[in-house]
Structure formats: structure tokens, C-alpha cells
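Fold this sequence, please.
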Amino acid sequence: MADTTRSFRELDSQAQIDAALEEGRLLFAGSCDFIFGAQKLGQLPPQTLPEIAFAGRSNVGKSSLVNALTGRKTLARASSEPGRTKQLNFFNLADRLMLVDMPGYGYAKAAKSVKEDWQEMMFDYLRGRPGLKRVMLLLDARIELKPHDEEVMKLLDRAAVSFQIVLTKCDAVKPAPLARKEEAILAVARRHAAACPFLSLSSSETGQGIEQLRAELAEFALPSQSS
């Protein structure tokens, strides 16, 4: 089993890095099943596993990232009407980790009441879920940071939930602009107490960053029964 006394980001030997990557691969190669969709807080399933939640604007690529991580094409499905779904979708990963696909935010055509309901429900979920280990906050590398994104960062600060920014669709941005984007987003993250001091670059199309994300998320999983 990979050395879990330190974060994957802190590993310095190639042997440790390789072991962590393999631990992530094995975890996400395991069974992953949709178990429940909760539209109200009272519907949340019992907390039996550590949870990792995925948040982001509508069409940022949350479902694609979850599918890429788990190696499945249709495990998580995007809503046909972005901005309308208010459901928290729970996926049991190998009985070791729970993945939570949060509804997208910031859809321009969504009614004001829908946006307010989203914020209220998400805040209640975030602050009332002690098993929630981290929120992966997805941002589209191709577009500028939006006010809704910073609002969600402030929401996570208030809920005292650690969040890690993941830039999606990085394959669509050339290296120099992508490096500038990364630095600009890191500068914003430094203003938020709950933000991790690093971010991840990813592409569900090319697989960029997927192995590393698996290794990082494996740190939060329950130990394998075979280890």
C-alpha cells in the first residue's frame, strides 16, 4: 500500500510516487456504483465511508471527470437541462470511498429561486457532513473565473471544508496561457482559508492529470481489505 503518512504532493522518491499511483489505480479500478440521489438534506444516505464531493459550474465537466477517474463512460451523467438539477448523486467506490457529484451552479438561465435553493442546500450539506474530506472545485481552464466561482469558495470557507481546485479541459489551452491561468487561479486560492495551496490540471479527453488525481483521492479512502 502507498505511504499515506504524507500527501502525494509531498512524496520525493520515485518508488513512493509509483506506489501511490498504483494505489490510486487499484482503488479506481474497483467497483463503483450509483447508490442514491438526494434532492433534500433529509434524504442523504448514512455516512459509512469518507466522502469526496465534486462541485463546479454547469458544463464545467464534472460528470466527465468522474467518468474518467473511474474509467467508465456513463457512470455520471450530465443533466439535459443545465442549472436545473438539484440532486446530490452518491457513488460507492469499492466500499472504500464515496464520490458525491454535486449539482452545477451558475447557470445563467436558472431562476433566482433555484440559485438560492442551491446555495442553501449546499451549505447545509457541507457544514453538516463530518465525513466529507474534501471538495474538488472544478474550473474550466478555457474561461475566466466567474463571480459564482468565488462565491462558492467563500461558501466553502464559511463551512470550513477543505477544497482543491481542478482546472478542467486543459487540453484545449496552449501551454503558455495555461501556465498564466494556473498562476492567476492560485493567487485567488491563496485568499481563501479553506483552499489547498495547490491545484490540479486535468483533461477528461486526453487523461491529463487523471492518474495523479486518483492517487491524491486514494489518500482519503479506507484501507483495502487485502492490504
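DSSP finds six helices and seven strands in the chain. Helices lie at 14-29, 62-70, 112-127, 147-159, 175-189, 210-218.
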